[in-house]
Amino acid sequence: MKKWLFAALLLVAGVAQAAIVEGKDYVLLAKPQPVATPGKVEVIEFFSYHCVHCFNLEPSIAAWSKKLPKDVSFRREQIVWGKQMEPLARLFATFNITKTLDRLHAPALTAMVQQRVNLADEAEMSKWLATQKGVDGKAFMQVYKSFGVNSQVARATQITRDYAIQGTPTIVVAGKYATLAAEPAQLLRVVDELIVKARGK
C-alpha cells in the first residue's frame, strides 16, 4: 500500500474514532433550557465541592476555560439535590458575589476532597476562610447570610432540577447537550465537539 494512501486511511480512521456518540458521550436534555447569553454557545459545568471527580477535573477545566473562543461563554453551577447541599450553594454564591471565585474555587475543592474540611458546616467553613489570605472574613460572612444569597441558593436548587442533573461533573452545552461520565481529557474533548455541533444548529 502506498504511503500516502496508508496515511489517508489512518486520518479517516482517526476522525471516525474521534466522533462523539449520543447515548455514549452525551445525551440530549429532555427539556432544553434557555441560554443566559444569546448569540454565544453556553457551557455550564454542574459540580459540587464534595465531588472527587470535580476535584480531579478542575486543573484541566480551569486551563481549558482560559482558552475559549469569543463565541463561547463558560460558567459553573453548584448543584443542590437536597437541604444538606444548600450550604455549598451558599458558599459558591458568596464566592461569586464577593468576586473571590477565581481565587477560592480550587482551594475549596481541595479543602473538601483532600483535607476533609466540611465546608457545608458554617463553623468549619469560617475557620477555613480565616486561613485564606486576603479575604475579609467578616464581610464575607455578611454576604453569606444575606437575602441575595438566599435567592441564589433557591435558584441553584431550581436549576439543578430544570437541567435534570443526576451526577457531577456534568457539562451542559447550548442548554441541550449534557455530557456523560468520562476522564477529564475525554470529557473536555466531548465538550469541544459539542460546541462545534451547537454552532452548526
UniProtKB/TrEMBL annotation:
TM annotation in the entry: none
Thioredoxin domain segment(s): 7-196
Signal sequence coordinates: 1-18
UniProt-annotated location(s): Periplasm
Matches recorded under Pfam families: DSBA
Keywords: Disulfide bond, Periplasm, Redox-active center, Signal
Domain of life: Bacteria
UniProt KW Lipoprotein keyword: no
The UniProt record lists the keyword Disulfide bond: yes
InterPro entries (UniProt xref): DSBA-like_thioredoxin_dom, DsbA/DsbL, Thiol_disulfide_DsbA, Thioredoxin-like_sf, Thioredoxin_domain
Family (UniProt): Belongs to the thioredoxin family. DsbA subfamily.
Protein name: Thiol:disulfide interchange protein
Species the sequence originates in: Vogesella facilis
